[in-house]
Amino acid sequence: MGIPSRPTLRELFRSGERRLEVFFYTSNLEKFLQAKTVFDRSGLVLKHFKSKTDPYIEDYSFGKERLLTRAIREISDVIGKHSFFFVEDTSLRIDSLSSNEKDFPGLSVKEWFAKTTFEDLDMEIKRLGQGRAATIKSDIALHVPGLPRPLFFHGEVCGSVAESAPKFPENDQYPWLTARTFNGWFIPDGAEKRLGEMSLEESWQYDFRTKSLESLINRLEEYAAVLNLPPHAYSRSQHLPPTGQLQLLPANKPILIVVGKTCVGKTTFGERALQAHSLCWVEASDILRTFKTQYDDEPARDFDFAKHTLEIKGADIVARKILQLYSDKLSDGLIITGFRTIEELETIKERIPQAQVVLVEASERIRFQRHLARGRLGNIKALREFRAHDIRQWSFGLLRVAEDFADIRVTNEGTLQDYWQQIEFLLRNDTGDSFRGVSRRVHPRHGLKDNQLYRCLLVMGEEGRPLSCDEIQKLTGASGQSIRHNNANKVLKRVPELANRFELSGERVRYEIAAAGRAYIRYMKLQFAPEKSI
Questions:
Q1: Does residue 28 lie in a domain region?
Q2: Which pLDDT does position 79 carry in this prediction?
């Protein structure tokens, strides 16, 4: 849709029952008055954030988009994220003073103009002898409630620096058309007047800020249309009930949670289910990335971002988000891949008890060869680096102990066609058949009375303090067969994510249950509910 030469009335803004509430955050009253005039002509009301100072820190070193993104973030932190609002920043390029890589004065136009006279600029331009071309640019960032990133709109006008200083009177009615800004020094291409000395009607087609505002209004008109859709134009999603479990789903519609180590075949499983069976496939890392926004100062590495997000929002945040987004897909079957925390499994199984956990396995050698063939892990070239990557992934808590939770185990060490056949077998959901490399006899693998890891964690959780292996031996003996101290040490040392190990000089090694260890206990109790407690 092209930008009209002047703002035009959008009937939808007036006729729609539901109307947008849009705010412009700026301390510059002249900017707001100009934007309000453009909005008024379009039929949309614009509201002003009345700030005595700039509502955000203007650090020009970040560049245009990052400056505006930080502005949106800072404002939303103050007033909340539920308002429609935008910010605008103006920049200037004077060609003879700029380079190919950098505009001058760029985003610093306000500060540059305040300390520069027309005579100084004119003298410098003449000295350089490279012409008087200039471009004024306007950039807008819009915050849409619920959208994790701002939307950007741009307008610019090319022209030249006038040959003489401005001498026209001020425009009291439209104060942005003035000699007191660069508008008074700038003649747009195709015009004979400076932008600042034009009438309002003349300025429409030449004003850089009007162009960006019109681009913004075009988008707002689309939002207004969606906001006023008739009921038959949309459907409401079926949300999960706040408590309790979901009703049992048809047996021929599988709900599978596919877990496993790096390069074991989880993504291939999801892709096959989607492409060959049209099942809904959700990759946990894709859901996690929805929490990453452009409001962050620096883009963190995926691992660091995942750790931070799970610590702040909860270790089961991805599972909760999946239940929120895909509850209406469950009757058609669902494949979830890539969980890394026990809490994620726990949340899904509590709400969908018929969901089955599929553990896909392959040897380290085969997984490493697959990585080298695909190159999906960046610069990892050596086996030791691949192992280090594995350990980072295991640190989330699930992957070292996934075998204890599996309902189905798949050994994926053959060809791609072999693996596809295994997937086909599982998606047929026929529990009466058997297939090479697929085992359903893994659940339960051990009862709670025979699970040494569970019993060690249980007594540590009950005591609520770090325990030595001798203390674990004594406490487990009080409720059944004791776990010898050296066995307790071996069991707990293998799962550092579930139990923190303390080695103090002159003292016995002690272990303290971690949050993932408590999740392990809860999940095992849920999984072995019929079994009597020990």
A1: yes
A2: 73
Look at residues 208, 227, 246 and tell me which one is the last residue of a structural domain: 227
Task: Give the residue from 439, 459, 484 where a domain finishes.
Answer: 439
Q: Look-up: residue for tokens 């396995």?
A: 361
The residue among 342, 346, 326 whose CA lies nearest residue 334 is: 326
Predicted local distance difference test score (pLDDT) of residue 78: 75
CA-CA-CA-CA torsion sign (127, 131, 136, 137): negative
- Res. 416: pLDDT tops 70: yes
Residues 452 and 391 in one domain: no
Helices vs strands, H then E, count in the chain:
19, 16
DSSP-assigned states of every residue in 276-333: HH--EEEEHHHHHHTT--TTSSS---HHHHHHHHHHHH-TTHHHHHHHHHHGGGGGG-
The length of the chain in residues reads 534
Q: Are 362 and 413 in contact (CB under 8 A)?
A: yes
CA separation, residue 102 to residues 65, 126, 212, 499 (Å): 15, 21, 21, 54
211 domain residue, yes or no: yes
Confidence of residue 379 (pLDDT cuts 50, 70, 90): confident
Query: Quick one: pLDDT band at residue 261, thresholds 50, 70, 90?
Result: very high
Domain co-membership, 164 together with 283 = no
Residue 508 confidence (pLDDT) = 85
For residue 491, which of 506, 507, 479, 509 has the smallest C-alpha distance?
509
- Across the chain, mean pLDDT equals 87
CATH at 125 = 3.90.950.10
- Pairing relationship of beta strands 133-143 and 151-161 according to DSSP bridges: antiparallel
Q: Are 181 and 188 in contact (CB under 8 A)?
A: no
Give the model confidence (pLDDT) of 446-463 as tens digits. 577 788 999 999 999 999
Q: How many structural domains is the chain composed of?
A: 3
* Cβ atoms 263, 374 nearer than 8 A: yes
- Give the pLDDT confidence score for residue 129 in this predicted structure: 95
Angle at 267 between CA 263 and CA 270, to 5 degrees: 150
Within 10 angstroms of residue 307's Cβ, the number of other Cβ atoms is: 15
Closest by CA to 437, choosing from 262, 252, 265, 261, is: 265
Average pLDDT over residues 247-272: 83
Residue 444 clears pLDDT 60, i.e. is over it: no
pLDDT of residue 442: 67
Output the DSSP codes for 63-121. Answer: -HHHHHHHHHHHHHHHH-S-SEEEEEEEEEEEGGG--SS--SEETTHHHHHHT--HHHH
CA 103 to chain centre: 32
Containing structural domain, residue 455: 448-527
Does residue 139 have a pLDDT over 50?
yes
Same domain, 461 and 352: no
Residue 66 resides in a domain: yes
Note whether 474 and 454 are within 8 A (CB). Answer: no
Side-chain half-sphere of 237: how many Cα atoms within 13 Å? Answer: 11
Confirm whether 3 is domain-assigned.
no
